[in-house]
Amino acid sequence: MAQTRLGRNENAAGWAFVMPALALIGLFMIYPILWSLWMSFQTGRGMNTTFGGFGNIQRLFADPIFLTALGNTLIFLAIQVPIMIMLALVFAVMLNNPRLKGRGLFRTAIFLPAVTSLVAYSILFKSIFSNEGLATQVVAFFGGPQIAWLAEPFWAKVVIILAITWRWTGYNMIFYLAALQNIDRSIYEAARIDGVPARAQFFRITIPMLKPVILFTTIISTIGTLQLFDEVQNITQGGPSNATLTLSQYIYNLTFRFMPSFGYAATVSYVIVVLVAVLSTVQFWVARDRR
Amino acid sequence: MTDVAATEIDREAARPTSRAAVRPPRGPDRDRIGPVVTYVVLSLAAFLSVFPFFWMVVGTTNTSFDIVRGKSWFGDQLLVNIRNLAEQVDLPRVLFNSFYIAIISTVATLLVSSLAGYAFEIFRHKWRERIFAALLLMLSIPFAALMVPLFVMMAGAGLINTYAAIILPTVANIFVIFYFRQATKAFPHELRDAAKIDGLKEWQIFLRVYMPVMRSTYAAATIIVFTLTWNNYLWPLIVLQTNDMKTMVLTISSLNSAYTPDFGVIMVATVITTLPTLVIFFLLQRLFVQGMLGSVK
Amino acid sequence: MTTVFRRSLFASTAVGLLAGPALAQELTVWAWDPNFNGAAMEAAAAAYQEAGHPDFVLDYQEFAREEIEQKLQTQLAAGTMDGLPDIVLIEDYSAQKFLLSFPGAFQPLTDVIDYSGFADYKVALATVDGETYSMPFDSGVTGLFYRSDLIEQAGFTAEDMQDLTWDRFIEIGEAVTEATGTPMISLDIDDPGLFVVMLQSTGSWFFNEDGSLNIEGNEDFRAALADYQQILQSDMWKPVNSWAEYQASLAGDVASTVTGVWITGTIKAAEMPGQWAVAPIPRVEEAANGTNYSNLGGSSWYVLNSSDDKELVYDFLNTVWGSDVDFYQDILVGQGAVGSLLAAREGDAYQTSDDYFGGQPVWQDFSSWLGQVPAVDYGIFTYEVRSAIASNLPALADGGDLDEAIGNIAAEAAVLTQ
After folding, report:
1. Sign of the C-alpha dihedral computed for residues B65, B71, B75 and B81 taken in this order
2. Angstrom distance (rounded) from CA C50 to CA C32
3. Cα separation of B257 and B261, whole Å?
4. How far apart are CA A285 and CA B255, in angstroms?
5. CA dihedral for B24, B29, B35, B41, sign (positive or negative)
6. Mutate which of C82, C138, C191 to disrupt the B interface (most B C-beta within 10 Å)?
7. Confidence band, pLDDT 50/70/90 cuts, at residue B16
8. How many CA atoms lie within 13 A of A257 on its CB side?
9. Facing B28 at nearest CB: one of A130, A178, A197
10. Confidence at residue C76, expressed as pLDDT on a 0 to 100 scale
11. Mean pLDDT of C234-247
12. Could you give the angle at which helices B91-122 and B128-138 cross, rounded to 10 degrees?
């Protein structure tokens, strides 16, 4: 009797504690996302829309700009996320060495970009990579060619990738650093005594031990990259010639810059939802325990 | 205990030298990356990480022309740039907006989301894991997909151009709920049991026992959430309509897309925008590292 | 100043009939350039205050142009007008899009403003179904602004710069670039503005009269794009990444630019008196009706239907913008704004010669060119098509096939204007 009453109290408290969050999520996420789903079947201009069935989905496959934005977003994802995760891991492993002098300083310095505002750092990068700006001068100083960073499709993509990597590497590193400190050092000690070389230790001990965190950060980074907006909007505005246009930006353009096409914009936004779902599943699958 | 640790470190520190003396450091059981490489890599990374901050500060003292031409040393335009910014932007008002939104959002988010994260870990219910999995799934919803319906909802509620419209959708943050649930795994259940024996109600346990014990988790979450809300861009860009409601981030963005952007002025605004998050980070840094440790166990 | 008497008859009648107990004499206005349209609006407010409305207050709010469009579009699409101003500045290219997408959002001014006093093409831009919605503001009549000193240094005269074709312009440009080491023009490859200028100078546009796309099979479009590709493939241009860099390039980095008259303020800000001159723009020779006159940008004031003091808005617009010729002289001299009020062009400021441009009567020149700009209907999808063009320019710069590019532009534009 006492047991069940306790259980009921706990139940009530549990629901009461979770309710505010669930209610807000329901109101500000679930309801709008369902609305958005309904909108994705509407076609028309501005607010004058009619049910269009799968018309918007057909439009997707015939839309070269959507395909460009999709391609750009996937390129950013495929190149930037692995580079960033590797760098963050390497820095974390280096900083985890207790004999390293100045660890705190290095750690703080590398994490520092993560506290800047996306808009602010984007503008910093824009000024650094301006036509006759600092980056051009540095390249010239080392005898490199004159590069029109933001005017050439290839280099503009490079700048965006550099910018995101700068902003987020330290952020991810902190997760790994925290996880590394939870690994029992005696495992490494044992490996060393068994004569396992450093590289093998990294791949056979560090990576497997960090797998859950790596998975988590990879998924978070994937979601972040698929939603990339602030940086491109403030560095290149999607240019030159849509070379850095992302899906989020295309949605923004379809909604606020061009003749409003809410239904189609909603369809494009569902592409991101589907991509995230698919990629997260793939990442979970790749990281699964093979036993 | 201390002695053992000290000996351990001494031994470790001594080893490379002694081994190096025995044979070249190229052996197959080389147990770590060479220290020189480590220092070079980390120094380079630290330099590249910090350099844009230096560039930003230098920029505040130069003319727009010099900045675009890559001048990377201090000039004498600081006061001019500050004056121009103050003339173009109602700084006290804009800063007030930014602080108001960020502080209220942070407090509300920490409260609502930590409450939920705590409850998901502590209380058992047959729906618990299913609801939690559904929440994680929702992490994947891009804001772009919510933007238009949210705007129409806010318009219907008469909340366009209000602080509430910015704050409300951010309060239940799934990432933060997830983070608190992870961290709560390290929260000692005995504390809760003891508090219950002392007759504390559930909400009292949360406020008086959980929150103080988890302060480093809260510190880490404060940095993350404050940075997130202080820097929020797309949603305020859509919802805030008038200049007297603008935040610092929107102000920089406007200055940047102005007809004739003045990078000197923009740099001053950038420094002002970056300072609060920097200060909070440095104030909470020690707790932050502990808090992160708890979250990834 | 006795500006009271310069008030138009119509406006005074309106005020006389409708003057009730004056409440808050405040109007909110959105515009985007503090040195140009914003400053002109503030000058208009000052003129209105002097014209017997000392209590009038202008709440000028500045946003970037794209921000204004985004805010308008968001609010109107959501069906609210809560945060919108009384008067908003809209670029001519976007006017039809707003008027057609959001019927009822803007106040028709057909019965309020005497449009016969304004340039026809400006009125046409803001007319939908017989109702006109704008107080026409500035014209974007284009000119070829060039550095007379550099042109001379390369062995050319002011005579050589008149009545040019783009072929000849490129010849001169390459010669100037080689002789002086200064590139002839600066281009942002992402901004097809110059191409848009070239296209309008042929009297053609992206759309047919019924609004359908007029890209593939449009000989004028092809001719203009062929000339533009030649420019892109020449060695006479310096790339810039942004509007700011473009503006900065005018201060000594380039020998010329082809753009709207509103750039005059920027060129004067470079403080190189006597080194600049203006000529009509080159023409697209292959086009059937190629002219040396075109337009870039230009904008007008629109009244939101949500404005709660429309009488004040009408009186303010009519008193100053609709009839105050002196005011137009002030904003011409002060902001370099070429207004659309025809009567204003007879004013003193328009007759003066300008020492900055070597004593050339530039305003008179622009006024006469303005009358020869081919009128086109910008339609509702200008920015969509511009975006489609921009995404195909790098291929053209790399020597890509012209007709293939046109096909791609047409395909992208078709999707975007769906």
Report:
1. positive
2. 25
3. 7
4. 45
5. positive
6. C82
7. very low
8. 20
9. A197
10. 84
11. 86
12. 150
Q: Assess if residue B86 is contained within a domain.
A: no
Q: Which residues of C25-40 are buried (b: 16+ CB within 10 A; e: fewer)?
A: bebbbbbbbbebbbbb
Q: Is the pLDDT of residue A187 over 50?
A: yes
Q: How far is B87 from chain A (nearest CA, A)?
A: 20
Q: Which residues of B touch A87 (CB under 8 A)?
A: 45
Helix segments in chain B, DSSP class H = 2-22, 35-59, 64-68, 78-88, 91-122, 128-138, 143-156, 163-171, 174-184, 189-197, 202-204, 211-213, 215-230, 234-239, 248-257, 263-295
Measured from the Cβ of residue B8, the count of other Cβ atoms closer than 10 Å reads 13
Asked if the ipTM is above 0.85, the reply is no
In what order do the strands lie in the sheet containing C142-147? C256-260, C142-147, C276-279
- The Cα–Cα gap between A195 and A190 comes to 9
Per the CB < 8 A criterion, the answer to whether B295 and B220 are in contact is yes
Which pTM was predicted?
0.82
Range of the domain at B15: 2-76
Q: Is the pLDDT of residue A291 over 60?
A: no
Q: What is the architecture of the domain spanning C142-295+371-416?
A: 3-Layer(aba) Sandwich (3.40)
Query: Which tokens sit at A146?
Result: 């004159």
Whether C79 shows a pLDDT value over 80: the answer reads no
To probe the interface with C, which of B259, B265, B266, B267 has the most C CB atoms within 10 Å? Answer: B259
Q: Dig out the tokens for A248 from the structure.
A: 């989020």
Q: Which residues contact A271 (CB under 8 A, 6 or more apart)?
A: A60, A66, A70, A247
What mean pLDDT comes out for the span B150-167? 87
C99 touches chain A (CB under 8 A): no
The fraction of chain B above a pLDDT of 70, given in percent, is 86
Structural domain ending residue among the three candidates B53, B76, B99 = B76
Which residues are within 8 A (CB) of C181 and not within 5 positions of it... i.e. 6 or more apart?
none
Partner residues linked to C141 by β-bridges: C295
Mean pLDDT of chain B: 80
Residues of C in contact with A243 (CB under 8 A): 394
- Please tell me the total number of residues recorded for chain C in this structure: 418
Would you state the CATH architecture of domain C3-140+297-346?
3-Layer(aba) Sandwich (3.40)
Is A63-286 in CATH node 1.10.3720.10? yes
Residue C345 is classified by DSSP as G
Domain boundary among B76, B101, B131: B76
- Type of residue at C48: Y
| Strand-pair category, C237-239 with C185-187 | parallel
Q: Which of B42-46, C20-24, C149-153 shows the lowest per-residue confidence on average (mean pLDDT)?
A: C20-24
Report the alpha-carbon distance of residue C341 to residue C122 in Å, rounded: 10
Q: Among C121, C68, C36, which Cα is nearest to C335's?
A: C36
Q: What percentage of chain C reaches a pLDDT higher than 70?
A: 94
Q: Is the peptide bond prior to A240 cis by the omega test (within 30 degrees of 0)?
A: yes
Q: Where in chain C is the domain with CATH 3.40.190.10?
A: 3-140+297-346, 142-295+371-416
Considering the domain architecture, whether residues B43 and B141 belong to the same structural domain is answered as no
Cβ(C183)–Cβ(C255) below 8 Å: yes
Q: Which residues of C touch B158 (CB under 8 A)?
A: 82
Most confident of A125-134, B54-63, C191-200: C191-200
> What confidence score (pLDDT) does residue B201 get?
83
Which residues in chain A touch residue B285, judged by CB atoms under 8 angstroms apart?
108
Q: Is B47 exposed, middle or buried (0-12, 13-18, 19+ CB in 10 A)?
A: exposed
Q: What subunits touch chain A, counting only 3 or more CB pairs under 8 A?
A: B, C
Beta-carbon contacts of C104 under 8 Å, excluding residues fewer than 6 positions away, are: C305
